[in-house]
Amino acid sequence: MGGRVMGTGEDDVRVVLQRPAFGDREREAVAAKGLTASLFRYDTGVEAIRLSNTRGNVVILPYMGRMVWSAAFGGVPLEARGG
Known about the structure:
Shape: globular
Number of strands: 6
């Protein structure tokens, strides 16, 4: 599986994701400049990435269309509300 390089400077980070890296326990995979990425697997078997900084976090499902599963900032969960 490939990774994606973001930016054009010398601080670029390339992360190559492989399914075996996602375990039952959340573990930090990358940390740089106040941003961390941790990998885990839900009980349902779905792999997830938590991107966190001091203000909050976003959980992305990389193998489910890169869907944003949840987000919370300033201690407030952000969620869709029905109309």
